[in-house]
């Protein structure tokens, strides 16, 4: 049984309260992770991070770059161990787990490069720009203070580091709370930060009963930035309890794939199946609904079913596309959505097959879906894909936009002008033409609108999000 510790103000500590981490592949307890639940002790963590900010924020850019580089080197040196933990606690395949680690290291390197560029080129105004003789101005980017980072189970390393790296390199200090499933990697990261010699109090890994104490974290007066990835309900609840805090929220999606009549149907079906089912659909950017015209419905369905034959299902060790869902609760939720659709006369195009002992749900294609069915508008975070039929493009756009979510969308067509026109009508952060939705390449800005999120991530945008302007106006 693993019993990791929390890193608080430079010390590894444990407590009398524990939460179990479960292996989704067999529902066995694999670790007990300590929690800090006492409100005063929680407050103290933020106070220490605030104290650390007073000195860390004054350190040189070179020092912080070297620290982040050393941190990346530690992650690189422990890449297999980190990947193994991902397999164990979130049932990601070994191949995808290692890919997540490598992607994270790349992200850290990109952060260093973009930060150097940003610092070397502050926003400057000449006397000519200002149309005032003897007046010049320069606006630097400075850190806010204590960043509260809350990361999800599905990319426990990558979506943690996309919060930590931009916060740390710019001079903020961090208190982070990983998801319980994902906390083994999360807490391992604190050990590696310590090895990289971050000063005490700069990085703090705080596990707590989030249901009970989430609001306490968000409302702590020392928090200056909250960067949260998770469900809209929790994100909105926490955001409501912040006070003058800079917010970055990534809250999920219901990404549509809109297939137009002139699409390359081979490409569309291939991308849709990959986009919907990789990591069992447990990605905020997974394709979560397909819209096809009545006339091309049968063609697309038959090609999607062909593609589905290539989707492997199994336990992580076999590197399947679809593996165990994160919990039995997640599996049961997916089954409820399927049942609701069946009750309302939808048709399953694939046999319904699942295994409660290892949380496996085989891919489900649901046809004849209409907007009254829960699966048409809820986010399953599982391997189920509803197919909706439209009569014209206006109706398709309306169906897409009649959603609480607006993360990404895909349009499949050979007509780039039409793609551009429709993309501008879709209310979402990013529209992918002839490609499944996805966050990467990570250098791209990443954002959602409506209930999908608030604020922008990416590399440059994350650095901007973690810093405020400080202007100096010279008059001589
Ligand atoms: O789950 C949300 C992630 O940010 C999606 O990232 O598109 O690289 O899978 P991805």
UniProtKB/TrEMBL annotation:
Matching InterPro entries: Ald_DH/histidinol_DH, Ald_DH_C, Ald_DH_CS_CYS, Ald_DH_CS_GLU, Ald_DH_N, Aldehyde_DH_dom, ALDH-related_metabolic_enz
PANTHER family membership: ALDEHYDE DEHYDROGENASE (PTHR42991:SF1)
Superkingdom of origin organism: Bacteria
Aldehyde dehydrogenase domain span: 17-470
Species in which this protein is naturally found: Ureaplasma zalophigenitalium
Keyword Mitochondrion set for record: no
Active site (catalytic residues): 250
Matching Gene3D superfamilies: Aldehyde Dehydrogenase, Chain A, domain 1, Aldehyde Dehydrogenase, Chain A, domain 2
Family: Belongs to the aldehyde dehydrogenase family.
Protein name in UniProt: Aldehyde dehydrogenase family protein
The entry's keywords: Oxidoreductase
């Amino acid at each position: 049984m693993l019993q990791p510790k929390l890193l608080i103000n430079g010390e590894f500590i444990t407590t009398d309260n524990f939460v179990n981490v479960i292996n989704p592949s067999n529902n066995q307890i694999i670790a007990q992770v300590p929690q800090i639940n006492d409100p005063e002790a929680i407050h103290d963590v933020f106070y220490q991070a605030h104290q650390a900010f007073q000195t860390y924020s004054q350190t040189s850019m070179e020092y912080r770059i070297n620290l982040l580089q050393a941190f990346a080197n530690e992650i690189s040196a422990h890449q297999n161990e980190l990947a193994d933990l991902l397999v164990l606690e979130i049932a990601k395949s070994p191949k995808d787990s290692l890919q997540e680690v490598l992607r994270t290291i790349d992200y850290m390197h990109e952060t260093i490069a973009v930060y150097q560029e940003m610092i070397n080129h502050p926003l400057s105004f000449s006397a000519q720009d200002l149309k005032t003789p003897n007046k010049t101005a320069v606006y630097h980017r400075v850190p806010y203070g204590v960043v509260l980072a809350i990361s999800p189970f599905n990319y426990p390393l990558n979506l943690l580091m996309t919060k930590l790296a931009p916060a740390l390199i710019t001079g903020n200090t961090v208190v982070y709370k990983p998801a319980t499933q994902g906390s083994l990697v999360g807490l391992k990261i604190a050990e590696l930060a310590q090895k990289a010699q971050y000063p005490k109090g700069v990085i703090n890994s705080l596990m707590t009963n989030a249901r009970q104490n989430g609001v306490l974290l968000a409302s702590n007066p020392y928090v200056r930035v909250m960067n949260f990835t998770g469900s809209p309900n929790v994100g909105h609840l926490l955001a409501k309890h912040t006070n003058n805090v800079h917010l970055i929220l990534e809250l999920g999606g219901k990404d549509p794939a809109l297939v137009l009549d002139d699409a390359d149907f081979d490409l569309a079906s291939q991308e849709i199946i990959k986009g919907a089912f990789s990591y069992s659909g447990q990605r905020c950017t997974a394709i979560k609904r397909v819209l096809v015209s009545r006339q091309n419905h049968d063609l697309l369905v038959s090609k999607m079913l062909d593609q589905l034959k290539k989707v492997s299902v199994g336990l992580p060790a076999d590197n399947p596309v679809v593996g165990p869902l994160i919990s039995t609760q997640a599996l049961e939720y997916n089954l409820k959505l399927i049942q609701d659709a069946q009750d309302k006369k939808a048709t399953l195009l694939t046999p319904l097959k699942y295994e409660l002992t290892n949380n496996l749900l085989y891919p489900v294609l649901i046809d004849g879906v209409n907007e009254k069915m829960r699966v048409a508008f809820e986010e399953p975070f599982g391997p189920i894909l509803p197919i909706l039929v439209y009569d014209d493009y206006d109706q398709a756009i309306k169906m897409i936009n009649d959603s609480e979510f607006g993360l990404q969308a895909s349009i499949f067509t050979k007509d780039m002008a039409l793609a551009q026109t429709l993309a501008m009508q879709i209310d979402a952060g990013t529209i992918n033409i002839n490609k499944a939705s996805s966050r990467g390449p990570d250098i791209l800005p990443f954002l959602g609108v409506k209930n999908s999120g608030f604020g922008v991530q990416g590399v440059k945008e994350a650095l901007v999000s973690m810093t405020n302007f400080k202007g100096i106006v010279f008059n001589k």
